[in-house]
């Protein structure tokens, strides 16, 4: 069984109306120029899939640096490290190439928004990310598609409640 190591982030931005987190809608089609618009998705009945930004740890890179890099690449915002939240472990079968079974560990970090405009990403990144957006922290538990990521957001909420100065 192959092993993969990734890292991602829960980027928190405090605003007058509450806390928001940066999420992505991963691309589910192969050609960015043919990606359905939000209104086309609504008409087709296809529910958007929201996820936390994350990606593979490059050789020689530390997971916390990967989380900061992936957040910048996938969302367009720059964030700084607050703390590690948890590791999520799961297995999947590659849907491409060798169809091999993979054991994956994703380290998630809590990050503080510093600068940048959400969804200001490169054209190359549009191959992976349909869009990035701010989501109210309270809504994340019902809007994120993956249970492991919902658990990560619960941990972020708990940490923020214990550290209101953040």
- Which bin fits the share of residues in helices? 10-25%
Order of helices and strands: EEHEHEEEHH
CATH architecture designation: Alpha-Beta Complex
Q: Mean pLDDT, as a whole number?
A: 90
SSE-based structural type: alpha+beta
* Low-pLDDT windows of residues: 30-43
Question: Gyration radius, to the nearest Å?
Answer: 16 Å
How far the N terminus sits from the C terminus, by CA atoms, comes to: 41 Å
Give the overall silhouette.
Answer: globular
CATH topology name, in short, is Nucleoside Triphosphate Pyrophosphohydrolase
What's the CATH C level? Alpha Beta
Q: Can you identify the CATH superfamily?
A: Nucleoside Triphosphate Pyrophosphohydrolase
Which terms summarize this structure?
six-stranded mixed sheet, Nucleoside Triphosphate Pyrophosphohydrolase, 166 residues, alpha+beta, single chain, 6 strands, 4 helices
Protein model, in words:
This protein is an alpha+beta fold. About 8% of the residues have low confidence. The chain is 24% helix and 40% strand. The chain is built from four helices and six strands, in the order ββαβαβββαα. Strand 1 and strand 2 form a beta hairpin. The protein has a single domain, classed as Nucleoside Triphosphate Pyrophosphohydrolase. Strands 1, 2, 3, 4, 5 and 6 form a six-stranded mixed β-sheet that branches.
């Amino acid at each position: 069984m192959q092993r993969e190591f990734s890292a991602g982030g829960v980027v928190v931005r405090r605003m007058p109306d509450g806390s928001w987190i940066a999420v992505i809608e991963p691309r589910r089609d192969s050609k960015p120029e043919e990606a359905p618009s939000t209104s086309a998705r609504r008409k087709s009945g296809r529910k958007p899939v929201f996820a936390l930004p994350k990606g593979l740890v490059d050789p020689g890179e530390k997971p916390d640096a990967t989380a900061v890099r992936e957040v910048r690449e996938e969302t367009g915002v720059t964030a700084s490290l607050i703390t590690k939240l948890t590791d999520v472990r799961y297995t999947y079968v590659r849907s491409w190439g060798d169809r091999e079974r993979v054991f994956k560990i994703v380290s998630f970090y809590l990050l503080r928004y510093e600068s940048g405009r959400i969804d200001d990403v490169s054209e190359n990144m549009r191959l992976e990310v349909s869009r990035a957006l701010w989501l109210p922290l309270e809504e994340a538990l019902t809007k994120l598609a993956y249970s492991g990521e919902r658990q990560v957001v619960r941990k972020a909420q708990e940490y923020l409640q214990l550290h209101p100065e953040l």
